[in-house]
Amino acid sequence: MFTGIISQNIKRLMKLLYIILLTWLVSCSAKTQDLQTISSDTMKLRTLTEFESYVIRDKGTERPFTGEYTDMFDEGVYACKQCGTHLYTSNHKFHSGCGWPAFDDEIPGAVTRIPDVDGSRIEIICSTCKGHLGHVFTGEGFTQKNVRHCVNSVSLEFIPTTEKLYDTAYFANGCFWGTQYWFNKTEGVIKTTVGYSGGNIENPTYEQVCSGNTGHAECIEVIYDTSKTDFKTLAKLFFNTHDPTQINRQGPDIGEQYRSEIFYTSAKQKQIADELFVELYKKGIDVATEITPFAKFYPAEEYHQQYYEKKQGIPYCHVFREKF
Ligand SMILES: [Zn+2]
After folding, report:
1. What Å distances lie between residue 220 and 102, 146, 176, CA to CA?
2. How remote is the CA of residue 85 from the centroid of ligand 1, in Å?
3. What domains sit in the chain, N to C, each tagged with a CATH number?
4. Number of Cα atoms under 13 Å in the Cβ half of residue 37
5. Which of 102, 120, 168, 172 has the highest count of CB atoms within 10 angstroms of its CB?
6. 127 C-alpha vs ligand 1 centroid, how far in Å?
7. Residue 60: what are its φ and ψ, rounded to 5°?
8. How many Å lie between the centroid of ligand 1 and the Cα of residue 125?
């Protein structure tokens, strides 16, 4: 009798487990279908070979010193093999001797870090298609940035180019909260960081810069996609969103840290800045903007970054006025 009850209970348990398993399988297939639908709608995923799929989708690892990009240092950009998103440029690449391609930085926003299932390492995946790239390590001292993206060659596709796909511009025009507000709204801008530049003190604090004795100006670093915008567009935005005739101030903000200045990083940027300066001068605008070579940029404290985004406000000090 007891045996009968036990076997009946086992049958019930088996049935329950079967239902749970069936429910799980149905929900999984729905998820897969969702993903496929999203993928085909929003991005074109390349068909992968068996080995590419093993690394990119099943998070496998190619054997060291076997990948085609491990020791390649040609000029170009490294894209995600699966979806084509640009992930790294050859400027980020360095020789680590570890057996896999190594990069000490990524194209802003292109790579996502997630805790590895092994509980200790940090896995890196393509931010767009979530394909597995490899792992990221810090504190090894390989380069000044002290970061090593250890990436499987097979997760990447190298696109040779002599053209600069991404560039950086540095502008100072008063309180950097308002400057960042406007540059963040601009098409082609990939990343902005507020900070300090033009002074003599290393790693200055906000309080030091506010004292007006460091020589630093409140400044913005703008990384932009050169296929979508250019330095001239950004420099025009710079002039249109502040009063370049004011010396060492912008409205209520007074002090040399609030001066108007373009820190150019190339002869081409200088030429464009000079041309815009003359164009405004000819319009009767007595421009006080300084145009000087870029030296060093120090990111400001975290609470200054994306200030108006966090606060959901509008700048008091930077109003858009078309001048061109
Ligand atoms: Zn991708």
Report:
1. 29, 23, 7
2. 6
3. 50-160 (2.170.150.20), 166-311 (3.30.1060.10)
4. 6
5. 172
6. 7
7. -80, 180
8. 8
Catalytic residues: 150, 175
Residue 290's Cβ-count burial label (10 Å; 0-12, 13-18, 19+) is middle
Check if the beta carbon of residue 91 is closer than 8 Å to that of residue 163. Answer: no
Taking the centre of ligand 1 as the mean of its atom positions, its distance from the CA of residue 81, in whole angstroms, is: 7
Residues with CB under 5 A from ligand 1 (ion): 80, 82-83, 85, 126, 128-129, 131
Find the 111 Cα to ligand 1 centroid distance in Å: 9
> Considering the entire predicted model, what is its pTM?
0.63
The three-class DSSP label of residue 285 is coil
User: What are 1's two structure tokens?
Assistant: 């009798």
Tens digit of pLDDT for each residue in 203-253? 999 999 999 889 999 999 999 988 899 999 999 999 999 999 989 988 888
